[in-house]
Every structure is written in C-alpha cells, then in structure tokens.
Specification:
479 residues; mainly alpha; 19 helices; 0% strand; globular
Length: 479
C-alpha cells in the first residue's frame, strides 16, 4: 500500500489496530469473573485457578520487549499480523480443551500473540499518523487498552449468564479471523533496511528473570516451600540487575535504558504502573464480592460491572480533549487523587452494602481513572522523540502488564493472608457462609492499594508544583 493510500485509510487502519490490544487486554481480565465457575468445573482450588490469569500476564511481560525489538528490525505490521493469528489460535485452544493443564498452555499461546500485538500497535499508529493527529490517535488507542482491561469482567459475566465459560475465549475466534484479514489488507508493508541484530543475551536473560520473579511471588506455599520461593526471587533480582548492566553497554539493546533519563517519561510510566495495579485489584476482588458475598448471579454481576467501563468510555475522551486545552499534569494528579478516595470508600463496603452505594463508589473510581489515563498517555508519548516512539510503546505495554500481574499477585496474597488471620487457619479460597471473613480481607486490600495510589498522587502533585514554579519564574523573567 502506498503512502497516500495509508494516509487516506489511516482512521480505518486505526480502528483495526485498536481492536487487537483491546482484545488482548480484554483477555487479561475477562476470565476473572469466571474463575469461581472454572475452578468448580475443572476441580481446582481458587489459589490455583488464579494461574489462568497470572500466566497470561507473566508471558506477555516476559516477551513484549523482544517482539517490540523484532518489529523495529523487521516490520511492525508483520509482527502485528502474526501476533493476531497466534492470539486467535490460542483463544480457540482455550475453548476446546477441558483440562486445567491444557488451559494454562493455551493461555501461554494466547499471551505470545498478545505480546506481539501490544509491542507493535503504538509504533504502527506513530508511523501512519502525521504529527498533528498522532496524539489524538494514541489517546484513542490508550482508551481502548483501558476499556479492554476494564470491560473484561462485566462482559465475562454476561457471557456466563447465557453460555458455558469456554465461550469467553471462543468469542475471540470469529473476531480474530475478520480482523486478521483486514490487517493483511490494510496495514502498510514497511520493510526495514537497517542491518540490525537482536540482542540475544538480553532476550534470554529478561524472560527468565521476569518469569522466575512472578512465578516465585505467585507460588506462596502451593507447590514450593519458602526457601525455594526466596531463592527464586533472589535469582530473578540478580538477573534483572545483570540485564540492566548489559543493556547499558549494548549498542543494539533490547531495552534502551537511556529513555528513563527523561524524568517526565519515567514518572508518567510509574504513575501508569500504579494505576493499572489498582485496576487489577478491583477486577480480581469485585467478582467474588458480588457473587459470593452479595449472592448476585453471574449475569447480574456482569451487568453491574459494566458501570466502570461505561463511565470510563465517557470520561476518557473528554479528559484527552481537556488535556490539550489546560495541560496533562493537573488532570493526571486529579485523576489519581480521586482514585485514592474511591479505593478508601470501597474499603468501607460491608456484607450487606446497598448496590446504589457501591455504584456511586465505582463511578467515582471510573471518573478518577478516566481523568488520569488519556492525559498520562499523552505525557508518556510526548516525552520521547519520534524515533523512540516504538520503544516507548513497548516499555509502556511492559509496565502495564507487570502492573496487572503485581496487582493480582499482591491483592490475592493480602486477601488470603488477611482471611487466614481473621478465621484462625490457612485458607486459599472463599469460605462458604463466612462473608465477614472475605470482607475483612477485602478491606485490607483496598486500603493497601489506596496507599499505593496516594504515592503516585503525591509525586504528580510535586511535579505539577515544580513545573508551575518554573513557569512563573520564566514569566517573571520575560516581564
């Protein structure tokens, strides 16, 4: 496709390109609401079934940088297309195998495809859109990523109310086939002339380090004792340090560590990390609270959880428009601050809380996240030059998935430890008839993540204050 045709069809291409990360992010969370059902169907406990979620995020986090680098060396469009097909095949396998081990293996295949999609889609958008439209296009992409993450649980609940849990995965197949055909027809066939090589050392060390770290953190005492868990964490930290040292000296590095020298970029990525950690906490806790404690059906749970993505879909585009008018930094601070308040309010929920009250709290959380996401994405991508947009996008996707993984691991760990302390013996699942035990653990989880969010809000406040002080000094000097 010629440059003129690409420019002419850029908005159609954008629609096709954002479908892929939407689906990939959707599948990181859509399974959450089905975890109780899948656990009972496959005869596994609740702590084990969380691997269906975490293995997907671990694999994406492990290989997303590799696919991003391969896309820069070869062709982002080619890697994107291959990723879409792989993701669709993985979805098919998830839906046809009735075995826990095969479900995990299929999720790994899904994740490999998802990583290829996430590592290249922002770079493709940056290549096909002119400078004056790039921010808007990247903002739309960021909104679809957030919507994919948040729409998963409610959509999963709606599917469960009418069909078997396997259709949560099988629904991806027809969409994947249609979208794959469109990507092959529409995406520009840009071939790289660079004779660059893949950083083999980094490509081996990084996946091992990330996988070992998250497997160790998520294992608790299910199949590893404490000594092996500690050893796994220690080895992974050593490997990460070695990786960073190697990347700093490698000419064609897998991870360009120099990009983090920009304070605006680093802080914006860190705040994005905090935001997605909090989102994961909500998506993993809420389905159990609504279904097991409040005794709502899967369908009602799904419908109720649609509140969050619907509000986000309304607020995020508006905040993106508003950030162009008044700047992104204040909105980022305001969004995180509202999220803190929302999490504190969620920690006050009880065994018999009114659904209207819960709805108000969820709306508040959605408004906070909606005000934060688009402006922060704009800050991330505006902080790097054009030739590093692909790298910046891959790093952003990496931290987003690491955040989701951390969020699930930390929230489930705190939840079950708190529940065990409350009830007096070790538990790894919801205790029937003891909603008070679950609510106690849920309170601790929400308060913990409110404290984490508060750190991000304080950092954005300091940045906002410093930048306004610099602006005032400059204005005074010019006068």
């Amino acid at each position: 496709m010629t440059d003129e045709k690409v420019l002419k069809n850029r908005w159609t291409i954008l629609f096709v390109v954002v479908i892929a990360p939407f689906m990939a992010c959707l599948d990181s969370s859509i399974v959450n609401v089905a975890l109780p059902t899948i656990a009972k169907d496959l005869l596994v406990d609740m702590q084990s079934i969380t691997w269906v979620v975490t293995v997907y995020l671990i694999v994406i986090s492990s290989v997303v940088l590799i696919f991003g680098r391969i896309g820069d060396i070869t062709s982002k469009s080619t890697i994107f297309n291959i990723g879409f097909i792989t993701f669709s095949v993985g979805s098919l396998f998830c839906g046809i195998f009735h075995n826990f081990l095969f479900l995990i293996l299929s999720r790994i295949l899904q994740a490999i495809g998802g990583a290829a999609i996430m590592s290249t889609n922002q770079g493709i958008i940056a290549e096909i859109f002119p400078q004056n439209e790039r921010g808007r296009a990247l903002g739309i992409n960021g909104t679809f990523v957030a919507l994919g993450t948040l729409a998963g649980p409610p959509l999963g609940g709606m599917i469960l109310s009418y069909a078997n849990w396997k259709y949560i995965f099988l629904i991806n197949v027809p969409i994947g086939i249609i979208a794959s055909i469109l990507t092959f027809k529409l995406l520009p066939k840009i071939k790289k002339n660079k004779r660059e090589k893949l950083d083999i050392k980094g490509s081996i060390i990084f996946p091992i380090a990330i996988s070992l770290l998250f497997i160790s953190l998520n294992s608790e005492e299910t199949f590893l004792n404490k000594n092996y868990i500690f050893l796994g964490i220690l080895i992974s930290i050593i490997l990460i340090i070695i990786f960073i040292l190697i990347e700093g000296k490698t000419k064609e590095a897998l991870l360009d560590v120099s990009i983090f020298k920009d304070r605006l970029y680093s802080l914006s990525v860190f705040c994005s990390f905090i935001s997605f950690v909090s989102l994961s906490c909500i998506s993993i806790i809420q389905p159990f609270y609504l279904q097991e404690t409040l005794k709502l059906s899967s369908g009602k749970t799904g419908a109720f959880m649609m509140i969050y993505p619907l509000v986000l879909a309304l607020v995020a585009p508006f905040s993106g428009y508003l950030s162009d008018k008044i700047g992104s930094e204040f909105l980022s601070f305001l969004g995180l601050s509202i999220t803190v308040v929302g999490l504190v309010l969620m920690s006050m929920l009880k065994e018999n809380s009114n659904l209207m009250i819960i709805s108000i709290f969820i709306v508040l959380l959605a408004v906070g996240n909606g005000l934060f996401q688009s402006p922060n994405n704009s800050l991330v991508m505006s902080a790097v030059p054009k030739n590093k947009l692909g790298i910046a996008g891959s790093i952003n996707a990496l931290f987003r998935n690491i955040a989701q993984t951390f969020g699930i691991i930390i929230s489930t760990s705190i939840l079950y430890k708190s529940m065990s302390k409350k009830i007096g013996y070790n538990v790894t699942s919801y205790v029937e008839g003891r909603g008070d035990v679950f609510v106690f653990g849920m309170h601790i989880v929400y308060l913990t993540f409110a404290a984490i969010c508060l750190v991000g809000a304080v950092l954005t406040a300091v940045r906002l204050f410093n930048n306004r002080r610099k602006f005032n000094k400059l204005s005074h000097h010019l006068k």
